[in-house]
Write a structure and sequence with these properties.
Pfam families: Hexapep_GlmU (PF24894), NTP_transferase (PF00483). With 368 residues, this protein is of the alpha/beta class. It has nine helices and 28 strands. It has two domains: 258 residues, Alpha-Beta Complex (Spore Coat Polysaccharide Biosynthesis Protein SpsA, Chain A); 84 residues, Hexapeptide repeat proteins (UDP N-Acetylglucosamine Acyltransferase, domain 1), CATH 2.160.10.10. Strand 4, helix 2 and strand 5 form a beta-alpha-beta unit.
Length: 368
């Protein structure tokens, strides 16, 4: 069996989720009741039997490090291989690299020392459940230098405006990478290539003063290289705005959408926290809601997502909202189309109302 190493490149992921990324990078943003966005990428790699994974982190990664720890939740706390969180190293006076090529250059030992034959590089803003072994098999069969992953979306949303799109010929070869707003072939910020080919491209990019490995090293060389496109057909959510985060979170309240993403044969793992089951009082009324463990609910909740340890007092009403860990909603408070970050408290009889197109967002540890 071919060995694969994984690189999760956060360098070019912008912190565009407003209050949700004040204190953390987007990869560490909570999602779906008990997960972080990066959990999906790491779980996809772990389920694909990738045993050595590097995370290229540049800024606001304290929360990320606290969540990932040694990688135990993904069976990556091992003597050989495992999970590596790698900030850029600024101590090499001879280093002329810039951009994300600083990560590739300063952590080149991760690439050269791995026993893997191939490397998967991925971001975290495309939420999905993908088997990278299937991508590898198609990559080998096509004889390509690089294979990129894309999703053919049925409907274009505002978040797709920022995404790169692909033009693909009948053989599956990529002939152009662009930002055509009419194209529905959305590049998912994932690609696979041979380890030695990756190493050579890194050296060449740095020698030519490049700063973005994919754009300068791969996209710019498209006429000279063979790039194959792998079509991913499963559940997919591109999250690069508060609006897309809110909409895709709400879509998980549909059982079919939830089951398409959270597959029994390919589970999504996260950091384990031992908490009691949720307590529902006789006065509670909860409908069509994802509720994590450790909550205490005495009020009314509908069409919402509650993370671990949320407390909803008697008389409180929550609708179409996302309430993160350890938030407290006091009696007679009303929340509708609201996102509360962790450790917030909403006082008695307070009313917060947003709209689906622009939910009301409250930053971490705010009391109102």
């Amino acid at each position: 069996m071919d060995r694969i190493a994984g690189i999760i490149n956060l360098d070019h992921e912008q912190d565009v989720l407003d209050e949700l990324t004040y204190f953390r990078c987007s990869a560490a943003v909570p999602f779906a009741g008990r997960y972080r966005m990066i959990d999906f990428t790491i779980s996809n790699m772990s389920n694909s039997r990738i045993e050595s994974i590097a995370v290229f982190a540049r800024r606001k990664y304290r929360s990320l490090m606290d969540h990932l720890e040694q990688g135990k939740a993904w069976d990556l706390d091992r003597k050989r291989g495992g999970l590596f969180i790698l900030p850029p190293d600024w101590n090499d006076p001879t280093d002329i690299s810039k951009g994300d090529l600083q990560h590739f250059h300063n952590n080149i030992d991760f690439i050269t020392r791995t026993l893997a034959d191939y490397v998967v590089v991925s971001g975290t803003q495309n939420i999905c459940n993908i088997n990278f072994r299937e991508v590898l098999e198609e990559h080998k069969a096509s004889g390509a230098d690089v294979t990129v992953v894309y999703k053919k979306v049925e409907e274009l949303y505002p978040e797709h405006k920022r995404a790169h799109k692909l033009t693909i010929d009948e053989s599956g070869r990529v002939t152009d990478i662009h930002n055509d707003q009419r194209s529905n072939n959305v590049y998912m910020d994932m690609y696979i290539l041979e380890k030695n080919y990756l190493y050579g491209m890194i050296e060449d990019c740095i020698a030519h003063g490049c700063s973005h490995f994919f754009l300068d090293g791969i996209k710019a060389r498209l006429p000279q290289i063979h790039m194959h496109a792998y079509e991913y057909e499963g559940a997919h959510a591109l999250i690069n705005s508060v609006e897309s985060y809110y909409r895709h979170s709400a879509s998980l309240l549909n059982g079919a959408n939830h089951d398409d993403l959270f597959k029994e044969e390919a589970p999504i793992f996260t950091k384990v926290k031992n908490e009691p089951p949720t307590k529902y009082s006789q006065d509670s009324n909860v409908t069509n809601t994802l509720v994590a463990n450790g909550c205490v609910i005495d009020g009314q909740v509908e069409d919402s997502i509650l993370f671990r340890g949320v407390k909803v007092a008697k008389g409180a009403v929550i609708k179409n909202s996302i309430i993160m860990q350890r938030c407290e909603i006091d009696s007679n408070a009303v929340l509708e189309n609201v996102i509360l970050d962790k450790d917030c408290r909403i006082s008695n009889s307070r009313t917060l109302i947003g709209v689906p197109e622009k939910p009301y967002v409250v930053a971490k540890r705010v009391s109102m």
